[in-house]
Design a protein that fits this description.
By secondary structure, this protein is α/β, with parallel strands linked by helices. The chain has a 3-stranded parallel β-sheet, sandwiched between helices. β1, α1 and β2 form a beta-alpha-beta unit.
Length: about 80
């Protein structure tokens, strides 16, 4: 189960979503304990902490502290394993 956040170099979020679904992945619409991977888009503002992108990272870190095994990966890592 994946959750996508940020802006992606490889295409818009919808195209990354479609790629993952074609490979059999499930995409979640929110960060919660069922998410296995938070995927960070490559294009980020230096003010990321104050954006919704930053809030997703913050929530993920809180889940991890609570025992969740969610993994945070970057867009290049995702692409390395999907292409």
């Amino acid at each position: 189960v994946f959750y996508l956040t940020g802006d992606f170099v490889s295409g818009d979020r919808k195209s990354v979503d479609t790629l993952l679904r074609l490979l059999g992945a499930e995409i979640n619409s929110s960060i919660n304990k069922s998410v296995n991977y938070l995927v960070l888009g490559t294009l980020a503002s230096r003010d990321w902490l104050y954006t919704s992108h930053g809030r997703k990272i913050e929530k993920t870190l809180l889940l991890k502290r609570g025992g969740s095994e969610i993994r945070v990966i970057t867009e290049p890592t995702l692409l390395k394993y999907t292409r």
